[in-house]
Specification:
single chain; 8 helices; globular; alpha+beta; 6 strands; 281 residues
């Protein structure tokens, strides 16, 4: 472990509960009760939403409450037909890996997974929160400290573990953002996908920033979420979607002439028997 990086991370963590940023665009009020001098600040949940937390959503009629789904699954009666597929292994409303409307015994403190993006949004609405934007998720994650945080993270492991168990804590007091469960973020990606942040227990250990696209309707066993509460008015541009990269289509393209191809090929000529004539200065 990089001892200098560990010391810098400890300094950041020591500031939890105090003002830790002046940039009103980022807020820097991560992890619950931090103060901020900005006009608004985000309060990101310390932990991923657990199975026990999500059970409260079911018990309060989350799957039957229209306003939670309004605009997320369409308007009017459209949401009722679409929500019909959000069921557990026994056909009752709930995450796909639950049974009889409840989570398996002993899994209450594990991150809830097997829910799609719309279910995460509905849960957040019920508790007067939102899903974090990509920018805020990445900021809280503390990627500049990845070398220190990652060795403690539940990546390339055997399965989900209790939230907070690993001791993988970011610079602003949030747990398990680089592992355990990947997390839904708000921003769209293209026409049908949404973005997720982090890697799950399945790994790999690279590519931990938010921005990976995933089809919004999928209910994967390795994707969960955490919520954020914004104090004040957030810049709406931070919720803008990501444009999918343009795909180049080669159908109908004319190939270059033999002469042009030869010119291009020469750019990549390499003589393995010719000395490199390397020099050290």
């Amino acid at each position: 472990m990089d001892s200098r990086g560990g010391a810098e991370l400890a300094k950041h963590q020591d500031r939890i509960g105090r003002t830790i940023g002046k940039d009103a665009a980022d807020g820097c009020s991560w992890g619950g009760t931090l103060e901020s001098s900005g006009a608004w600040r985000p309060r990101l949940d310390r932990h991923e939403v657990t199975n026990r937390d999500f059970k409260r959503f079911l018990d309060r009629g989350g799957y039957e409450t229209e306003w939670l789904w309004d605009g997320v699954l369409g308007f009017g009666s459209a949401w009722q037909s679409r929500i019909a597929g959000f069921v557990d292994q026994t056909g009752k409303p709930g995450p796909r890996n639950w049974q009889n409307g409840n989570y398996p015994a002993g899994m209450g403190d594990l991150p809830v997974t097997g829910i799609c993006w719309a279910e995460a949004v509905a849960y957040a609405r019920l508790f007067e929160k939102r899903l974090p934007t990509i920018r805020h998720w990445n900021h809280a994650c503390g990627h500049e400290f990845t070398a220190v945080i990652l060795p403690k993270s539940n990546i390339d492991g055997q399965g989900l573990v209790r939230v907070g168990k690993t001791g993988s804590v970011g610079p602003y007091g949030t747990h398990d953002m680089l592992g355990n469960a990947s997390e839904w973020c708000f921003n769209s990606y293209g026409d049908h996908d949404r973005t997720i942040g982090g890697r799950s227990f399945r790994g790999p250990s690279y590519g931990t920033r938010a921005g990976t696209p995933l089809e919004a309707t999928l209910r994967e066993p390795f994707v969960g979420f955490r919520c954020v509460k914004y104090i004040g008015t957030i810049d709406p541009t931070l919720y803008a979607g990501l444009a999918r990269g343009t795909t180049v289509k080669f159908d109908g393209r004319q190939p270059v002439s033999d002469r042009e191809f030869e010119i291009i090929r020469r750019l990549y000529d390499y003589n393995e028997h010719k000395p490199l004539d390397e020099r050290f200065e």
